Amino acid sequence: MRQIELKKFIFRQKMLPLLLSLFTVLLVATGFMFANKKVQIAVDGSTMMISTLHSKPEEVLAQAGINLGSKDEYRLSTAKLADGSVISVYRAVPVTMTYRGKTEVLVTAKPTIGELAESLGLEKENTKLIPDGQTKLEANMVIQAVSLTEKVVERDVPERFTVVRQPDSTMEKGVERVVEDGQDGIKTVTVRIHFADGVEVSAEQVSEKIKEAPKPQVIHVGTRDMIETSRGSMRFSRVEAMEASAYLPTDGSSAGITATGVQARRGIVAVDPDVIPLGTKVYVQGYGLATAADVGGAIVGNRIDLCMEDDSEAWRFGRRVVKVYVLD
Question: Which of 247, 231, 222 is nearest to 323 (CA)?
């Protein structure tokens, strides 16, 4: 019995170092498995995969034989180096940048124009980048950073008067008369002015306030459309101020026939058909009722030629401006 127990003790004593060695080997192998990671490196237009035990991107780049210049930069795709991380290397390149009133040639490895502007302390909200901030940086790129500012000012400007038209039945249709003159007022407007590098580029009105109210212009507009004639009251559609002259029945032709084929006589007038259509009934101030039934080479626009009975009447009438009522 004692011999059996002694043999077991000796066996345990021999196995213990072996078990400890196996455990150590397993621990090291497991640690290596978890510490080893595959990392992708993007550099100089190409990519490579590398297995590494390092935990710092700089050490991984050194392991891959990639040298960083003093102004070169890299970006890590994850918060810290891990299996599957991507290290992107950006080489420093020269760019020309105009900002804060000066133009400089900068050597930078910033991936985008926006990051470059941020590194120079340019405020994103108050800076317009040309090209825009998302644009990738390239060698010899020309960049402009425009400083955007604004100022709010108050200005006094005229407030234009309105025109009020009031119907007046005592005045003929088509006649207007100013009975009260209008007068502009003054209003104070608040304006926000936008500047780009100190130069005004736009302005927008924010608010306005009446300082002095304007006085409206009042115009009376005639509505009376009846005219008294030798045949009683007649309705007219419009009134024309026309230059009138006189002619005799035989002035146009020896037979006294008008352009419409009727006999020329008193009460027949020559007109421009584009102003008063032939066949229209009219009432001519100082002449009376008439029919537009003739034309004339010199009767163009607002001119009218009135047929008279004899020379003496034509001479007395002469040439004058008259009102011509176009009757309904």
Answer: 222
